[in-house]
Design a protein that fits this description.
Elements: E1 14-18, H1 22-33, E2 37-42, H2 47-53, E3 58-61, H3 66-70, E4 74-77, H4 82-95, E5 98-101, E6 114-118, E7 121-125, H5 132-145, H6 150-167, H7 170-182, H8 184-190, H9 194-206, H10 211-215, E8 220-225, H11 236-242, E9 247-250, H12 256-259, E10 267-270, H13 282-294, E11 298-303, H14 313-322, E12 327-330, H15 335-342, E13 356-360, H16 373-378, E14 382-386, H17 392-401, E15 409-414, E16 422-427, H18 431-438, E17 444-448, H19 460-470
Parallel strand pairs: 1-2, 1-4, 2-3, 4-5, 8-11, 8-12, 9-10, 9-11, 13-14
Antiparallel strand pairs: 6-7, 14-17, 15-16, 15-17
Helix pairs in contact: 1-2, 6-9, 8-9
Bound molecules: S-adenosylmethionine (SAM).
């Protein structure tokens, strides 16, 4: 270990910064966040520094003197020429004051780490002054893993520390806290439901704690949207949950690239449903989620796109709630918005649409989708049809029969945001031909409305030309 990490309580301690420019301002921000009694001394302060710090810290506009350094617990030297910095470093050393000289690790007693600040919880990363940029990169990686509410969780636990001490035997306490941090109450705090968490915590503390009860565990289920396919479109929260999960139940539309981001030893269960081939019935998926949670596991139910948009996430949430399992929902980028971005087509472009409607083209068995065609045809908005490829001809026919013009622009986006993405575009009257000639099999969305003319895609003429060139 090059340098020993210690988290110092600087509240009210005297810290001095010699310097009056941008480097001094950056260090001042850090020291203010740590509640230090901060003074800055320099012959001249920059306008930016004065604007930000005036009234918050002691600003002494003159040359520093030895007595300034001697009065400090910590000293920073910033925006100062090397020879001058060395002179003050010498003074600091004689006075026994710990010193940091910006960008001069050789002169430093301590370096400032890259910091992840979650209130009471702080993580600091040091490269011993050797590679600050690497430190910053690591910080970004770790930031993504740590929930923003981690500080609230530490505060929450702190509020119950004494009560737990008074009610739970010393030998059971560690196990109690381990179960707490892995369990549903902590998940509730992290999900922002502090009120519910307090109620659950009081109930937990007030019930008798026998050996058996300490063993009893309840897991949690997170219903999580995986987005349309590109792993970069996962939310930071989804990524964090994937890296904490014990078990992941996923659909067909969740790509391997996304699954590869999960914790390596997480169990993966495929419960996907290909169209007309319901490999695992919905009730069985719900029963599995409940059973796994009752085993005390952290379960992620990972669904393509957004779990609440044609994803049956609502049914799963109802079933979990009915069974008394703590369940939380993390949204995802739905196919409509993901595909629109992939095709560079704004779904509500101001010049041509003021509204957007998402519908499903899927119906039970071979039946036609039971949609209110006259309402949909009358709406002068953008219509996005999910699961509409096999019924595309019927959908176009019904819309035209109910008054939507055959010349209305359409775009079909298959595997949007993935490497094998395909986009074709044309008119509503030729939708079936576009799908046939474009070799569209799905998953795909049909976008019907003026905005579709703006999609980056191939027309029937482009496809014909391509075919001729290949032949
Ligand atoms: C059962 S729905 C699930 C929708 C999902 N919950 C969402 O919010 O995107 C499956 C349909 O979503 C659409 N879909 C999902 N991912 C897609 C993608 N990457 N590109 C195009 N369409 C997609 C297709 O219409 C597919 O048939």
């Amino acid at each position: 270990m090059k340098a020993f990490p210690a988290h110092i309580d600087l509240k009210g301690r005297s810290v001095l910064i010699i310097g009056g420019g941008a480097e001094a301002l950056a260090k001042a921000r850090l020291m203010l966040a740590a509640d230090a009694a901060l003074s800055l001394v320099a012959p001249k302060f920059s306008a930016d520094l004065l604007a930000e710090l005036k009234g918050k810290v002691r600003l002494i506009e003159r040359d520093p003197v030895v007595a300034d350094v001697e009065a400090a617990a910590l000293l920073f030297i910033a925006d100062t020429q090397e020879a001058e910095a060395r002179r003050w470093a010498e003074v600091a050393r004689m006075a026994g004051v710990l010193l940091n000289v910006v960008d001069q690790p050789a002169l430093c007693d301590f370096t400032t780490p890259s910091i992840i600040d979650r209130g009471r919880v702080t993580v600091s990363i040091s490269t011993g002054g050797a590679a600050p940029v690497l430190g910053k990169k690591l910080r970004a990686d770790i930031e993504a893993l740590l929930p923003p509410q981690l500080g609230s969780l530490a505060d929450f636990a702190d509020r119950y520390r004494e009560t737990v001490k008074a009610t739970i035997a010393r030998e059971d306490r560690r196990r109690f806290w381990e179960a707490f941090f892995d369990g549903p109450i902590a998940a509730q705090v992290l999900a922002g439901d502090e009120k519910g968490a307090h109620e659950a915590m009081l109930a937990l503390i007030n019930r008798p704690h026998t050996e058996e009860m300490a063993e009893e565990k309840t897991g949690t289920v997170h219903i999580v949207g995986a987005g349309p396919g590109d792993p970069d479109l996962l939310t930071i929260k989804a990524l964090r949950l994937l890296q904490r999960a014990d078990v992941i139940l996923h659909d067909r539309l969740v790509s391997d690239d996304i699954l590869s981001l999960a914790r390596r030893d997480a169990e993966r269960l495929y419960v996907g449903k290909a169209k007309s081939n319901h490999s695992v019935p919905q009730e069985e998926i719900e029963a599995r989620l409940i059973a796994l949670a009752r085993e005390g596991k952290t379960v992620v139910r990972l669904k393509g796109g957004d779990p609440f948009v044609f994803g049956r996430g609502g049914e799963e949430l109802d079933a979990l709630r009915k069974a008394g399992i703590p369940a939380f929902v993390t949204p995802g980028v739905t196919a409509a918005t993901g595909c629109a971005a992939a095709a560079n087509m704004a779904l509500t472009h101001r010049d041509c649409a003021q509204a957007v409607t998402f519908v499903t083209g899927h119906a039970k068995g071979e039946a036609d989708p039971a949609l209110d065609w006259s309402a949909l045809a009358a709406l002068k908005n953008t219509l996005v049809v999910y699961m509409g490829v096999t019924k595309a001809e019927t959908i176009a026919g019904k819309l035209i029969a109910h008054g939507r013009g055959a010349e209305t622009p359409v775009a079909v986006i298959e595997n949007g945001t993935r490497e094998n993405q395909k986009i074709v575009k044309g008119a509503l009257g030729e939708l079936a031909a576009l799908i046939e000639t474009g070799g569209i099999k799905g998953p795909a969305v049909l976008v019907i409305g003026e905005v579709a003319a703006r999609a980056d895609g191939e027309t029937l003429a482009d496809l014909a030309l391509k075919e001729r060139l290949v032949a």
